[in-house]
Amino acid sequence: MASAEDLRRGRDGTRRMLDDLDSLSLATQTCRDDSLLSLLTGIRRRKAGQTARLMDWLARQEDGLQAPAIDPDASGGSEGETAKRASKAVETDASPSARSADPVRRPPTAEAGVIVIERLQITPELLIFKVPRPLDFSFSAGQSVKVGLGDITRSYSIASAPHEPVLEFFVELVPGGRMSERLRRLSIGDRISLGSAKGDFLLEPSYRNHLMVATVTGINPFISMLRDCVHRNLKGYRFHILHGASYQAEFGYREELDALASDHPELLTYVPSVSRPDEAANAGWTGSVGRVDTIIANYLDRTGLDAGSTMLYICGHSGMIDLVERNYRPLGFRIKTEDYD
Question: What is the reported pTM?
Answer without folding.
Answer: 0.73
